[in-house]
Specification:
With about 100 residues, the chain is an alpha/beta fold. About 20% of the residues lie in helices and about 15% in strands. It has a single domain, classed as 3-Layer(aba) Sandwich (Alpha/beta knot).
């Protein structure tokens, strides 16, 4: 179950919508299954949307961590969830190259 306003977004090879064409919202919850078995049917039924990472013909699947990073990066880009590199201390590097 999700909290009000949250959407369960399933990343699956069975989807038709590429993650780059999906419109993410800040409250979205991304769900990924195992590389071999995926997720149970109950999760498929509960998902508000299903998205995929397009792959070359013949490719079986991506490493789940790589796929998660790709999709999360796009979701953060769309929802302006990345930290501001100017005001975030860990990104402020002095001329000497040290934080």
């Amino acid at each position: 179950a999700t909290v009000s306003g949250e959407r369960l977004i399933l990343l699956t090879t069975k989807a038709r919508t590429p993650y780059t064409e999906f419109r993410f919202e800040k409250e979205d919850v991304l769900v990924l299954g195992s590389e071999g078995a995926g997720v149970p049917q109950s999760v498929h039924r509960g998902a508000r949307a299903r998205i995929l990472v397009p792959m070359a013909p013949g490719a079986r699947s991506l490493n789940v961590a790589v796929a998660a990073a790709m999709v999360l990066g796009e979701a953060l880009r769309q929802t302006e969830g990345f930290p501001d590199p100017i005001s975030t201390p860990c990104y402020n590097i002095s001329k000497s190259g040290h934080a």
